[in-house]
């Protein structure tokens, strides 16, 4: 270790600093640059007193700093638009720089259910259980959604397709900001365009406001048919209350049932 110091430095302070850094024993009267491969290292006796060859420490190379915000919306649009299949989109999303949002999540929550199903549902964002499993709508909210779908003869195993507006769980389940939503939206829009559902259900306020570009609350949007144009295709859209909200507000299940009946009628027409 290089122990050169300015003559104005306090030797006692330097000694205290070395001790704090873990230097508590002198093994040589002269300093040795152990990273210099041109200088042979001296043999150091082992516990039995026999000399043994010392190894040079491996230099640590710092990794380039990664932006916390990710690649951004413009790169996301170009990346998503270049995908021609749902498989390509999934692979592109998993390799995309989602910034701190993605690095803090355990899994990329892409989709579940049947690709190309007539009914596609987009939720808000993954919770802890979705992040752990890597699938959307699991846990109590997912079980309620499965029951809701079964009530109109649909299921993720046969004829429904599920995804989220945000594929990575935010730290502490915090609400994603506008930059995150704009970065994630191109992948969701391309996902919908490739899946080609007959009916698109937006479950929750975040998904509804992001895709329909509205500031109205989900309580004012739900139950009303909307139109969404993506890649020259017009989709019938029904905003609904999220299952997690229905668990906390069971009296709202009545309105959710009316929305489900409207969805069933649209799908059967």
Short structural description:
The protein is α/β, with parallel strands linked by helices.
How would you characterize the overall build of this protein?
There is one protein chain. A hairpin with a 2-residue loop joins strand 7 and strand 8. Strands 3-5-4-6-8-7 form a six-stranded mixed β-sheet. It has helices at residues 11-20, 73-81, 86-94, 99-103, 128-133, 139-150, 178-195, 205-212, 218-221, 243-248, 253-268, and strands spanning 44-45, 51-52, 112-113, 119-123, 160-164, 199-203, 226-230, 233-240. The N and C termini lie far apart (80 Å). It contains eleven helices and eight strands. Helix 2 (73-81) packs parallel to helix 7. It has one domain: Uracil-DNA glycosylase-like domain (Uracil-DNA Glycosylase, subunit E, 3-Layer(aba) Sandwich). It has 269 residues and is α/β, with parallel strands linked by helices.
What topology does this entry show?
Blueprint (H helix, E strand, L loop, with lengths): L10 H10 L23 E2 L5 E2 L20 H9 L4 H9 L4 H5 L8 E2 L5 E5 L4 H6 L5 H12 L9 E5 L13 H18 L3 E5 L1 H8 L5 H4 L4 E5 L2 E8 L2 H6 L4 H16 L1
Helix pairs in contact: 2-7
Sheet bearing the most strands, described?
6 strands, mixed
Inertia-based shape: elongated
CATH superfamily: Uracil-DNA glycosylase-like domain
Low-confidence stretches: none
Domain module count? 1
CATH class value:
Alpha Beta
Task: Give the distance, in angstroms, between the N- and C-terminal Cα atoms.
Answer: 80 Å
Share of helix, binned: 25-40%
Residue fraction in strands = 5-15%
Beta-strand segment tally: 8
